[in-house]
Design goal:
By secondary structure, this protein is mainly alpha-helical. Among the domains are: 107 residues, Glutamyl-tRNA Synthetase, domain 3; 85 residues, Arc Repressor Mutant, subunit A (Orthogonal Bundle), CATH 1.10.10. The protein is built from 19 helices and twelve strands. It has a three-stranded parallel β-sheet with strand order 1-2-3. Strands 4-5-8 form a three-stranded antiparallel β-sheet. A two-stranded antiparallel ribbon has the order 6-7. A hairpin with a 3-residue loop joins β6 and β7. α5 packs across α6 and α11 crosses α12. It is elongated. 36% of the residues are buried. The chain binds glutamic acid. Glutamic acid binds next to loops.
Length: 463
């Protein structure tokens, strides 16, 4: 069997991390099995779907590196096909035209409520002759759902789940205005896209029973289902604003790398032994549905941030430099020219060692691009006493004649310290203050080399 999966977001908002994880699982599962991963934009809710949301979702998926194998299918373009299938079901006798009016439905519902019964639509038109149809009324199409027996789903994550057919009513497939219902559209599209495995959030489990009934009514093969538990907040409640970021866009803005977010989302709800740090290739090699757990994942922002630090350290320095330049852009006190870029690039191996997010990385690189004079943090200002300024003057004269490479710089600083009977740290701290405006930075040798001779000397002169 060819494995074909799909991710089917509704463009009624940004890509939520729950959706991102669903997309990731679909992607990994199809890649692992040498299959295909497709994308379907479920934009049938015309009032809530927007092109901006669609664009943002596509952008987030591309950023996550989850490339689909065919152009996305827009559900709204398929209404004619959805209608065609509904009519075919009527012709086959597994669906029927229902002429019940909204008033009649409301009356039956109210009656049931008054009697304390749960209401399930029982349309009189299920068994009535079409000849009796009222003139001028456009019918809806309802599924003639089985009344006896059970609908069973052998879910690849949840195990066997079943519902008595008496619990399910004759759902509408096509509304009287000719538009398909969500359940119907999903089934027709999954069939036409030849989807073998439907992997989605377990909030869809109740829909699945209804969808399976439509597959049966059409006599179509039923795909395999895998319902993945939701992502909750650390307190076990549904993930919401108060827990922290939720959309992929927010995580990106907060300086997370796609590798880190994917790695985190993979491990949230899936396990393979104690493997923690997994590259995309490793994930593809290992991922299968039997590793997906049944309990909800709890979002742990601290853990995600730690993982992000790991992925930043693994990331290419040119890429991190470009990210940093982008994040610094627009800051009025900075000069972001090629020279600044080179300074950032030179210091990147040291900077990325300390940063857990790209925001922290950009903050730590800020001083490299700053115009003179640098603003001084209070501790840095305190380090620049009259004595230490005097000392820096002497040091500047030496640095003016030193080659700006690791060994000569190190040797020059040591010789200078020794000559003045000081420890290296006593020299490094005022030097750091003058060069960075702060008392915290990567090693002072690396900072000197990153700035380059002329900028370093100009900063010393300014101090
Ligand atoms: N469009 C649905 C959603 O955004 C997903 C439907 C499905 O995966 O079958 O939740």
């Amino acid at each position: 069997m060819t494995i074909r999966t799909r991710f089917a977001p509704s463009p009624t908002g940004l890509l939520h991390i729950g959706g991102a994880r669903t997309a990731l699982f679909n992607f990994l599962f199809s890649r692992h099995h040498g299959g295909e991963y497709l994308l379907r934009i479920e934009d049938t809710d015309r009032t809530r779907s927007t092109p901006e949301n669609t664009a943002a979702i596509l952008d987030s998926l591309a950023w996550l590196g989850l490339a689909h194998d065919a152009p996305p299918l827009f559900q709204s373009t398929r209404e004619a096909r959805h209608a065609e299938v509904a009519h075919a079901l009527v012709a086959a006798g597994t669906a029927y035209h229902c002429y019940m009016s909204a008033e009649e439905l409301a009356r039956l519902r109210a009656e049931a409520q008054a009697e304390g019964r749960q209401y399930r639509v029982v349309s009189p038109w299920r068994d009535r002759d079409a000849k009796d149809a009222p003139a001028g009324v456009k019918p809806a199409i309802r599924l003639k759902a089985p009344r006896e027996g059970e609908t069973v789903v052998a879910d690849l994550v949840q195990g066997e789940v079943r519902v008595a057919n008496s619990e399910l009513d004759d759902m509408i497939l096509l509304r009287s205005d000719g538009t398909p219902t969500y359940q119907h559209a999903v089934v027709v599209d999954d069939h036409d896209m030849d989807i073998s495995h439907v992997i989605r959030g377990d909030d869809h489990l109740t829909n699945t029973f209804r969808q399976v009934q439509i597959f049966h009514a059409m006599g179509w093969p039923v795909p395999r289902f895998a319902h993945v538990p939701m992502i909750h907040g650390a307190d076990g409640a549904k993930l919401s604003k108060r827990h922290g970021a939720q959309s992929v866009t927010e995580f990106r803005d907060q300086g997370f790398l796609p590798e880190a977010l994917c790695n985190y989302l993979l491990r949230l709800g899936w396990a393979h032994g104690d493997a923690e740090i997994l590259s995309r290739d490793e994930a593809i090699a290992l991922f299968d549905l039997d590793g997906v757990g049944r309990s909800p994942g709890r979002m742990d922002y601290t853990r995600l941030t730690q993982l992000n630090g790991v992925w930043i350290r693994r990331a290419d320095d040119d890429r991190l430099t470009a990210e940093t330049m982008q994040r610094l852009a627009g800051h009025p006190a900075l000069v972001l020219d090629a020279e600044a870029e080179q300074r950032i690039r030179r210091l990147m191996p040291a900077l990325k060692d300390r940063a857990k997010t790209l925001v922290e990385l950009a903050d730590s690189a800020h001083f490299l691009a700053h115009k003179r004079p640098l603003p001084m943090a209070p501790k840095a200002a305190a380090a620049l006493t009259a004595d230490s300024r005097e000392m820096l003057r002497g040091l500047a004269a030496i640095l003016a004649a030193t080659e700006f490479a690791p060994e000569p710089i190190d040797a020059a600083l040591r010789a200078f310290a020794e000559h003045h009977g000081k420890k290296l740290g006593e020299i490094a701290q005022p030097l750091r203050a003058a060069l960075t405006g702060s008392t915290i930075s990567p090693g002072i040798d690396a900072v000197l080399i990153a700035l380059g001779r002329s900028e370093a000397l100009a900063r010393l002169a300014a101090a």
